[in-house]
User: Which sequence fits this backbone?
């Protein structure tokens, strides 16, 4: 009887060892970057010398691109011969509570770049924040010279896996052409 149990146990063990489980392959779906609705853009200027008051320029288009025209598109008005620290904020005000898109840009900083293209104004604009390798642009320094009027195009570029510090690559999430008056 012991011999039969031993033979039976051996057969069962050999059978179990010979059985091979099918490998289960779980495919991970690709990461999709959902485009966020940016309804509001704010840039706040603080005089680094503390002489001039703070100034915020706002763009607001509650329904996003198309549809109803923007309700706010401020002119940027700054003082000549002044250096300003500027901070940009992106919001989606079409939802409650308001969604601060700026946080998502910071979380994905290696994939985002804010570009500044001034024309016909006496200004130099330098990005002052970084993702650890390249600048981002949520923080910048605006050095203004004499009185002038012109424009600054501000663009948020989405550059996943291709960011190299230049504005030539990627998709444009939002682009705004602000009138600028340096007084």
Assistant:
């Amino acid at each position: 009887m012991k011999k039969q149990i031993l033979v039976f146990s051996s057969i069962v063990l050999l059978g179990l060892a010979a059985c091979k489980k099918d490998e289960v392959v779980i495919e991970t779906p690709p990461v999709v970057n959902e485009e966020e609705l940016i309804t509001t853009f704010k840039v706040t200027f603080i005089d680094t010398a503390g002489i001039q008051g703070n100034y915020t320029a706002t763009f607001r288009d509650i329904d996003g691109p198309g549809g109803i025209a923007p309700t706010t598109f401020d002119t940027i008005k700054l003082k000549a011969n002044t250096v300003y620290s500027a901070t940009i904020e992106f919001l989606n005000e079409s939802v409650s509570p308001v969604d601060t898109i700026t946080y998502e840009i910071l979380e994905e900083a290696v994939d985002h770049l804010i570009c500044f293209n001034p024309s016909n104004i006496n200004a130099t604009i330098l990005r002052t924040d970084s993702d650890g390798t390249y600048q981002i642009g949520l923080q910048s320094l605006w050095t203004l010279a004499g009185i002038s009027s012109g424009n600054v195009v501000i663009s948020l570029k989405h550059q996943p896996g291709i960011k190299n510090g230049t504005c030539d690559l990627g998709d444009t999430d939002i682009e705004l052409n602000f009138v600028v008056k340096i007084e």
Q: What stands out?
A: The radius of gyration is 28 Å.
